[in-house]
Amino acid sequence: MSASDGCPSHRSAFAKAPAADSLPGQILHILRLQIQSQIQPGRQGWQRGLGLATQVWGPVEGPQVFAAVAAMLDEMGRARRSTFRFSNPDCAGCAATMTAHEALFLQCFTFLRQAARDKAERSAFLLCEANPCPGFLAATERLARGLPSSLPVSL
Predict the structure, then answer these.
(1) According to the model, what pLDDT value does residue 51 have?
(2) Could you list the residue range(s) of the whole structural domain that residue 67 is in?
């Protein structure tokens, strides 16, 4: 379904999504596939996400990145009370945009990758709806610091 077909994901679009081949774009795509797997298990989104992570980071680091994104998602889910809105990864029009929730998720990751913890905490505060979120920040920091050093810090 395209954005012009009225896909529900597209209605909550907030901003243009990062390029699919960029670090934030890859993290976002893996996140979307993991969420999709939770709400539509038959689509096997987790397998596609794991495949993407392995393709990008290799057979050793790829599964580690995939697991780190899963840990972020789990910790965020523990802190949030409302539904996390995400764009449909299987709709080209929807996938080209991101929701406000996705933007905050990526901000937390980006700020911690840039060692700007105070900014990451502010984004996490909004993302987690003012609920305590030390687990989410710790999981995000593990991914931000654990990525291969060959990746640029500036996103």
Answers:
(1) 95
(2) 17-146
